[in-house]
Amino acid sequence: MTPIYTVSPSPEKGLGCFSTKLIPTGTLILSETPLFNVREPRTNAAVLAAFLNITKSEQENYLTLYAQTATTRDAKVIDIFNSNAWQTGSRTSICPQAARFNHSCVPNASFAWNSRLGKVTVHAVTAIPANTEILLSYERPYQVGSARREKLSAYGFVCSCVACGSGAEASDIRRARMVLLDARIRCQRRQLWRSAIPKAEVELVRILKEEAIVGEALGLAHHDAAVGWRKYGRVDLAVRHAAKELEICIICFGPDSSSVDTTRAFLLELKAQLAKESLLVSEPVLLAEGVSHSTGRRPPRPIWAVYRA
Ligand SMILES: C[S@@+](CC[C@H](N)C(=O)[O-])C[C@H]1O[C@@H](n2cnc3c(N)ncnc32)[C@H](O)[C@@H]1O
Fold first, then answer.
1. Interface confidence (ipTM) of the complex
2. pTM of the model
3. Is position 304 within any domain?
4. Of 35, 60, 190, 200, which sits with the fewest C-beta atoms within 10 Å of its C-beta?
């Protein structure tokens, strides 16, 4: 069977990963067990020790990965680690295949750590046409271009994706707004009481879509919108956002991820709450007839009799 992607030269980016055929949204592109990992906060000594612990052929494979500038062998081992490692829970791991994916601030694929499988995964977050580079984001999306440039300079490159190039002006306006909305939402998360309409959360969902950020960040924005609508008392709208969150979660992490279980449980909890509320609304009709919905007998003093007013 033809592999779903190949590794080949990418203009200005060294090697990169290219689709060999159309990859539908949600497709698992790669799942890989780390070659080695180190606990964070890491030291250079820990990286060198972990490197010396793998087999000679694994070391040779590791040393073929991209390095920026390195004079000695030890410096090269550290340099490769810093340029290619991904965060995997509380550790940082080297996955030689995942290390070949280049960056875009508007990625078409999503990287994740699946602790249940002990593997990293890469899923398509959009439909990726044949012969297209598969790109992951190395950075959080809620940053304007200048902030992203500074972070990405640590990897020794200047990004030329649509958000950094031709569409930079419009993108920066949206990203600046995202930074603001994100800060507002973080603040509101600590608020437990019933609140106002979750305007910031809903706007963040809209702007992320406009910016074509459709992965994990959009899933989280839908989650926050669901929480906001529930606090406001519109559980029906909360259910809609939680359903979108679950859909995105499955796309980004795969159906076997524990994050999907958590998200599904949240949706089920909201659906149960909605069903209960619908029942409370319909019960008064039965009460008017003097019959309990559940037992068929005359009900005890109903706490929701207010609905009859
Ligand atoms: C994890 S490696 C990715 C694979 C690498 N291109 C290779 O040849 O193995 C990270 C390095 O790839 C290059 N790179 C990744 N994304 C890039 C981009 N959008 N533009 C230019 N270079 C990029 C940078 O040199 C970066 O340090």
1. 1.00
2. 0.90
3. no
4. 190
Indicate whether 278 belongs to any domain: no
66 lines ligand 1 (CB under 6 A): yes
Domain that holds residue 212: 168-245
Shortest-distance atom of ligand 1 to CA 10:
6
Q: Are residues 13 and 147 in the same domain?
A: yes
What is the residue with the minimal CA distance to atom 13 of ligand 1?
13
Per-residue pLDDT of the chain (309 residues; tens, 9 = 90+): 889 999 999 999 999 999 999 999 999 999 999 999 999 999 999 999 999 999 999 999 999 999 998 789 999 999 999 999 999 999 999 999 999 999 999 999 999 999 999 999 999 999 999 999 999 999 999 999 999 999 999 999 999 999 999 999 999 999 999 999 999 999 988 877 667 999 999 999 999 999 999 999 999 999 999 999 999 999 999 999 999 999 999 999 999 999 999 999 999 999 999 999 998 887 665 544 444 444 444 433 333 333 322
3-state secondary structure at position 23 = strand
Asked if residue 99 has its Cβ within 6 Å of ligand 1, the reply is yes
Is residue 112 classed as helix, strand or coil in its secondary structure?
strand
Q: Are 183 and 200 in contact (CB under 8 A)?
A: no
Q: Specify the ligand 1 atom closest to the Cα of 15.
A: 8
Tokens standing for 16? 């990169």
CA dist., res. 275 & res. 292, Å (int): 17
Residues 150 and 174 in one domain: no
Q: How many domains are there within the chain? A: 2
If you measure from the C-alpha of residue 46 to the centroid of ligand 1, how many angstroms do you get, rounded to a whole number? 24
Distance between Cα 149 and ligand 1 center (Å): 14
Determine which residue's CA is closest to atom 15 belonging to ligand 1: 102
